[in-house]
Amino acid sequence: MDKADGNEGIPSDAPLSPTIRALGVVSLCTDFSSEMVYPINPIFLTRVLGASPEVVGLIEGVAESTASLLKLYSGWLSDRLGKRKPLTIAGYGLAAFTKPLIGLAGGWGTVFAARFLDRTGKGLRSAPRDALIADSVAPNQRGRAYGFHRSMDTTGAVLGPLVGWLFLQQFPTHLRWLYFVAFIPAVVGVLVLLAFVREKTAPAPAVDSVARPVEPPRFALSGLSSGYRRYLFAVAVFGIGNSSDAFLLLRAQDKGVPVSQALLLYALFNVVEASLGWFAGRWGDRVGRRPLIALGWGVFALVYLGFALLNGPVAAWLLFVVYGLYYTLTQGTQKALAADLANPARRGAEIGAFQLVTGIAALPASLIAGWLYNAVSSAAPFYLGAASALCAIAVLLAGADRPASAAI
């Protein structure tokens, strides 16, 4: 039985549970911390530590792929334990303590290690947290719940860069100190998680008449419904061209956006998502997830084409605003569609499969982007991104939604 079944009969416009709201606050604090420093990571790497664009791609690609491998197993483990919260706490806690490590870095290897640990924390928490959200609401509220969570996440992503920019206005020569300041909201988020998030007791797993050994999950498409497999294929096609946002920031700087404004630029595009994510989630509940995702990927293709043709700082600011619309339409909606298509009995593991595909594509995407940026042209990664997004739309719309009960 779907754990959200206990919430069936609740109107779709009923208030979200305290657990959903608390998880939103946790994500706000965590993104406040992360986005205070993420926009300056490529600057710190290339201009302070002397790293190349290929190194930026390597660090971001390996970090995201590591996170995604753990997402598969953390989702499965949360299913087996019948508890999502402990893994969520461990993940947020580990990520918090990596912030000062970058501030102490004397070379790009330390940044690599810190990003690896940070994304390890993300891998531990993401699938259990997303499954916890699905467990805590009725199916007809999932789009709104994920949309709310994403809006809170991106509210932190707006506040973090703004506070970071204000800090650097006062202390322009103390870039490293910003990583220590970012540690504070991350710790607050962990404390909120400990104090206010409650999870339901999971039903005991079905026991076969013949005992079988419990095996960890393997990424096998045969265990997923056909609709879910088609969806994951579309996500993979899109992911090949969806390199790290660090390359958008590097491209903007190459075209005249001052380093001091990088944090403001990153905050600006997050304003769009923070403002509209809630409404996008509710819209997805009403009209379907696929149309919103296809529209979002179309926006992505246009933005990446714009970055390929970029010729000045004004256009970069405008494109970052539109880029926020892509995030608004897709980030919460993609997770909601994964939850819809997942088998309720294996929801944690199957949401982990979605997370796995998303992040595994990040390694080749960022490695290819780094090589193209340096060896071909700074426009080349963005042409690739636009083309992959258009191909992914075709694959996505070729499939049809299948109910979770069809997964065997």
Provide structural commentary.
- It is a single chain.
- By secondary structure, the protein is mainly alpha-helical.
- The protein has a single domain (17-200, 222-403), classed as MFS general substrate transporter like domains (Growth Hormone, Chain: A, Up-down Bundle), CATH 1.20.1250.
- The chain is built from 17 helices and no strands.
- The longest helix has 29 residues, at 53-81.
Helix percentage:
over 70%
How far apart lie the N and C ends?
14 Å
- What is the count of β-strands? 0
CATH T-level topology = Growth Hormone, Chain: A
Identify the CATH class: Mainly Alpha
Structural Rg: 20 Å
Low-confidence stretches: 1-7, 203-213, 401-408
Strand content: under 5%
Main features:
single chain, 408 residues, mainly alpha, Growth Hormone, Chain: A, globular
Short description:
The chain has 408 residues and is mostly helical. The chain is built from 17 helices and no strands.
